[in-house]
Design a protein that fits this description.
This protein has 274 residues and is α/β, with parallel strands linked by helices. It has one domain (3-255): Ribokinase (UDP-N-acetylmuramoyl-L-alanine:D-glutamate ligase). The chain is 37% helix and 19% strand. The protein contains nine helices and nine strands. It has a six-stranded mixed β-sheet with strand order 3-2-1-4-5-6. Strands 7-8-9 form a three-stranded antiparallel β-sheet, sandwiched between helices. Strand 8 and strand 9 (191-196) form a beta hairpin. The longest helix is centred in the C-terminal third of the chain and has 17 residues, at 225-241. The two termini are 12 Å apart.
Length: 274
């Protein structure tokens, strides 16, 4: 069984962050592990408080995983401060894992900031060059690339600009655009577009976490990048289509809908499966 590590914040309401990542890993038949960098008191409607974990404790959590377990992919999400970014980047440089997927989380679904706005430049300098895949949404891509995005051509331009900053591939997600849900992948050579019909629902809490974790899972399972992104897009679309009306605000996606309906393909062949 492949092993995937999430480095992210904890969402006590269960829809995003570490909780969404671990559900996504399980739905893809990989063994999930976690390093918590921030504890977020949030629900479907608001963020109440954030308590960052000390950089030393972040480093020790990462050491605890890598000294004992072979890691096949890493997904990193919420990194709220420069000190947190420095701790994570130092350990990624030390252990040099394959298949590093970075979701540059800046704002919660309800609009509350999850990253110090002044830390974006530090993210670009320390974290972005370590990404095999970076998965910004449109507002995040605008902030990183320093440009406004109004069209698919703009999404491609932003992807190119971000790629020049050092990451190996970029997926600019179109969930904040109007019309169909179109994502653009740039691998440094070619653009790929992934388009689905937009689903009319407010229950999209944790979709970015889920999408990036699905990509990491598929890369760990051996898929090439384009196919990993395509299958991750299909997975998150199904999870949104069958989302859960939980809470008073933006509810979570249904991470296990396909698993409950059809089972996990090939799971009986996975080493260690019952």
């Amino acid at each position: 069984m492949k092993k995937v590590l999430s480095i992210a914040g904890s969402d006590c309401s269960g829809g995003a962050g570490i909780q969404a990542d671990l559900k996504t890993f399980s739905a893809h038949g990989v063994f999930g592990m976690s390093v918590i960098v921030s504890v977020v008191a949030e629900n479907t409607s608001r963020v109440i408080a954030i308590q960052d974990i000390t950089p030393d404790m972040i480093s020790k959590q990462i050491d605890a995983v890598f000294e004992d377990i072979e890691v096949d992919a890493v997904k990193a999400g919420m990194l709220s401060t420069p000190a947190c970014m420095d701790a994570v980047s130092a350990k990624l440089l030390q252990y040099k894992p394959d298949n590093v997927v970075i979701d540059p989380v800046m704002v919660a679904k309800n609009g509350c900031p999850l990253m110090d706005p002044s830390a974006v430049e530090h993210l670009v300098k320390t974290i972005l060059p370590l990404a095999d895949v970076l998965t910004p949404n449109i507002p995040e891509a605008e902030r990183i690339a320093g440009m406004q995005i109004h069209s698919v051509a703009d999404m491609e331009g932003a992807a190119k600009a971000i790629h020049r900053m050092g990451c190996r591939a970029v997926v600019v997600k179109g969930g904040h655009a109007i019309g169909n849900a179109l994502d653009v992948l740039f691998d440094g050579r070619k653009f790929y577009r992934f388009e689905t019909t937009r689903i009319d629902t407010k229950n999209t809490h944790g979709t970015g976490c889920t999408f990036s974790s699905a990509i990491a899972s598929q890369l760990a399972n051996g898929l090439v990048l384009q196919e990993a992104v395509r299958q991750a897009k299909d997975y998150v679309t199904t999870a949104i289509e069958h989302s859960l009306a939980i809470g008073k605000g933006c509810g979570p996606t249904n991470h296990f809908y396909s698993l409950y309906r059809s089972g996990l393909p090939g799971f009986h062949n996975v080493e260690g499966a019952v």
